[in-house]
Amino acid sequence: MKMLIVEDNSRVSALLKRGLESQGYQVYIAEDAEEGLVLLEKIAFELIITDIMLPGIDGIAFCKRIRHSGSKTPIIMLTALGTIDEKIEGFDAGADDYLVKPFEIRELYARVKALLQRKQDTANPVEEATQIVYDSLRMDKLTKVIYRDGLAINLTPKEFNLLHFMMQNPERLLTRDEIADNVWGNNFDTGTNYIDVYIAYLRKKIDKGFDQKLIHTKVGMGFILSNKL
């Protein structure tokens, strides 16, 4: 499997390359986002690892360009900061996972394997409806647009995935652990308040201006999509 590492620190990129190659992966190195974009046009990568702090085009903008091209290649972001706002910005840009430097190389191996397994599991999904409807909500999974009472609502990738999970499980209390596992993956840090932040984002976009509220919080328990509360 081919992997792309975009990292301007040659020592770090060399360590990552050596470690991943020891796991059987074929690794390519780009020193900045522009070089990475050139390689992406030539080579089909199974996974991308990018630092956020890059010269020129930073990792956030790089990630957005990849997603705007239509690519669904898994992306792991690396950062030395790891603030909540920075992580949320990375997820909103389309990143699938996040690692804060310094980290154990074994943790990177685990994250890589988990993302590749998830990609494999979704490569040939069981055919299902392209739209989900609940109450006044309609989700178009092809265009990634949500409609409420016919009004189009644009969501970020993580907001969309979170609402998708909730619409697949309406009228059921969803715990933070369930949401973390199904929306962010097994390596999500449940000690953060990301889920609460994203629920607040969704509530602002989905419920604002409507008398009937659909997204509810059960304090200390979890969240529920319901028109009965």
Walkthrough of the structure:
This protein is elongated. The strands form three sheets. Strands 2-1-3-4-5 form a five-stranded parallel β-sheet, with helices on both faces. It has 229 residues and is of the alpha/beta class. The longest helix has 17 residues.
Return the CATH class of the largest domain: Alpha Beta
Our count of helices gives 8
How many β-strand stretches?
A: 11
Q: Could you tell me the radius of gyration in angstroms?
A: 19 Å
Name the features.
229 residues, alpha/beta, Rossmann fold, Arc Repressor Mutant, subunit A, 2 domains, 5-stranded parallel sheet, 4-stranded antiparallel sheet, 11 strands, 41% helix, elongated
